[in-house]
Amino acid sequence: MSRKVFVGPALRRLREETRLTQTAFAQRLGLSVSYLNQIENNQRPVTAGVLLALGQTFGVDLATFATDDSDRLVTDLREASADPVFAEGAPSLQDLKRVAADSPAFARAFLRLHQTARRLGERLQAAGDAPLLPPTGESGETALIPYEEVRDYFHYVDNYVDDLDRAAEDLAERLGLAAASDRVQALSGYLAGRHSVTVNANATLGDDVLERYESVTRMLSLDGALDASTRAFLLASRIARLEQADVMGAIVAGAGFRSRAAGDIARVALANYYAGALLLPYRRFLAAAKDTRHDLDWLGRLFGASLEQVCHRLSTLQRSGQRGVPFYFVKVDRAGNVIKRHSATRFQFARFGGACPLWNVHEAFEQTGRTFVQVAEMPDGLRYLSLARAVTKGAAHWRAPVRRYAFGLGCEISYAGDIVYSEGIDLKADANVAKIGVSCRICERANCHQRAVPPIDREIRVPSDRRKVVPFDLS
Q1: Edge-first strand listing for the sheet containing 328-332
Q2: Which of the pair, 65 or 384, is modelled with greater confidence?
Q3: Residue 139: how many CA atoms within 13 Å on its side-chain side?
Q4: Architecture of domain 145-279
């Protein structure tokens, strides 16, 4: 059964941007005012005819209306409302769905408020009897972690930044990077010729320093222990900082970050985004991904890129009219901390606490270098083809620390035929499906043998006449 599409808030926002009344807007679309009012208030789904009229009349991308992030908002709202502070009178799932669909701006404001309250509580616990002061360099109005602000920004733009992506692709074509035998040399030459930057790609910078740029002497030094793909990425990122500063500044200003630190982190993330788009230009990479059926190692060899660069780039292929398979991408450490998470899918990530232990991204640490394949089903019934692989970042010398991470990459099961890793797997057999959740604290599955803690929005019963692996039942 096809899913009904409700686009009320987006349609209302378009009308307000064009400064048209409901009457004038309805006339342009050939609709009655009452029908337009029902669509704007999510009382009626949008039809294909209305979507077509929107595209023809206002030149908007139909995909903007055909997709929404209400599923993500509902998941985030459900996790936030499961906080014990809402124990008395917590909103129902239907209430949360209604808020996400009808008032997404209010939903995001509520989530920011909840994050602020949560962080303040954590700081109060850590402070004990000491006076609680605002974070250094920040006003007292915000307690959000800057990384969370930036993560949420990319989360709600489907991890695609059109201006940077197209600018990077244009430069890649001008430089002929696809045919370059040595991309480090090609990018170093460009920096020297265009920006008078001298590159030392074999410097000794210390254990934790990958790159050092001296703006006065215009000297850029890269740690010589880095592999070629990482050095090329750092050079591309420096090009972004030199050439795309105004574009990135406008994006940061428009994002409305509540702290200076979040803006600074966003600039780093945007420069890294540009670097990935320069080294793996959109149309060439999308075509190669389709030709290889998304073979990660093959793509890495074709573009001289690392596994992380390939996985991250796959999660960004959401250009209007040229969309790739919608992927999620996550990077975790051995303790389960999420270092990166990006998604163009409806996959539900935990905002607080650990991820589901049944998810294969944790299993990947058991055998570094092997690609683990899993058919995973979330509580909402959506199934995903989930890939996971652990990697070890080599040490520069004997005493240098070794870093280990696992990467997770996945797409909805409907795209599995386009993925080479689905070969030999019975995608319809329930026995092959891992019933995972967002996190134990909000997971509604009653019979999970790996449950660590009960969900905080459900009561538990502890039977006295029997004992199971999990010693309690959910009400």
Answers
A1: 338-343, 328-332, 403-412, 383-393, 372-377, 433-435
A2: 384
A3: 6
A4: Orthogonal Bundle (1.10)
